[in-house]
Amino acid sequence: MECDPTSIKTEPPFTDYDAQLTAYRETMESLVQRTLEAHGRIQQYIYKTPLTYSIPLSKQSIDCKVFIKLESEQLTGSFKIRGAFNKLLKLSSAGDVVKHSGIITASSGNHGMACVEAGGTLGIPVTVYCQRGVDEHKKQALLDRGVRVVLHGNDCVEAENEARAAAMREQKEYVSPYNDVDVIAGQGTIGKEILESCPDVDCILVPVGGGGLISGIARYVKQVRPSVEIIGCQPQNSKVMFESVKAGRIVLEESLDTLSEGTAGGVEENSITFPLCAEYVDDWILVDEEEIGKAIIFMLQHHHKVVEGAAGMTLGAYMKNPERFSGKKVVVVACGGNIGIDKLKHLLSLYT
């Protein structure tokens, strides 16, 4: 029997990265406590976003209840503010050096805006490296804030590598968009909020790019409620983490253009998110571009909410096979709402 390549259960091949898992074991074990500490640290700076019951999504499956975690309504329009504030608060508490020298980060847009917001609040200058071809709407949002934006490479990993090298040259702190335990712990606070609002959740669908968001959510939720199924969602046009987990190592795979630009691109070598995804993500769903576009319009039509491609991608993962979730209570993480008006107008012309 042939399996559906867009929804594949992968068993983690531990033999291929056992040494890496061992190296990160202490960090993994401490991540739940770090997440609890992050929640206490950042809650005065961020929003506790709504967990909204979706009647139209729930009706697509039998005896299913679907809730949407609206991180699209978070400060700066994205979940990224959680990890950024947690990291920068820890840096600023360590001394005044970082406030004078500033930080360097790499981003496809949302993480950069989050670092700028947190940096502005805490008095920390920020330089953002982006890949060429970064979403124009997000790049302009950074420029409008007066941020120094450096374009480098054609993939987010190339921008990340150059940003890390620049930080070493300039003796500044580098803040990774995902490959950092403090950033991951900040994103994990979403898992804490989900379990507080919906303690009997059965499945959580999470968008995956570099893996910081799902690593934080999965590690916390699996500790508190191991029975919850964590499902990683990626666009078919950029599925590096999925292919990496399947292969047992981080793979180099070209990413095609996708509406889910927030999750597009490669994964940094030796990223802590790789073993976390391999160990704690139960299943994967891949989503095509039409499914992403239709999900974005669905949210606008049925919930009067504007979401970006990465959020549409996760909603589309549910919508492509709602029968899979029959009889279950499901949370879909809508990770952001930063989409340009021209892109939204184009999608409206296609799907309405």
From TrEMBL:
Cofactor: pyridoxal 5'-phosphate
GO BP terms in the entry: isoleucine biosynthetic process; L-serine catabolic process; L-threonine catabolic process
Cytoplasm recorded as keyword: no
Domain Tryptophan synthase beta chain-like PALP residue range list: 42-336
One annotated GO molecular function: threonine deaminase activity
Superkingdom of origin organism: Eukaryota
Catalytic activity entry: L-serine = pyruvate + NH4(+)
Keyword set, alphabetical order: Lyase, Pyridoxal phosphate
InterPro entries listed in its UniProt record: Ser/Thr_Dehydratase (IPR050147), Ser/Thr_deHydtase_PyrdxlP-BS (IPR000634), TrpB-like_PALP (IPR001926), TrpB-like_PALP_sf (IPR036052)
Gene3D superfamilies membership: 3.40.50.1100
PROSITE patterns hit by this protein: DEHYDRATASE_SER_THR
Pfam family, one: PALP
EC identifiers of the protein: 4.3.1.17
Protein name, UniProt field: L-serine ammonia-lyase
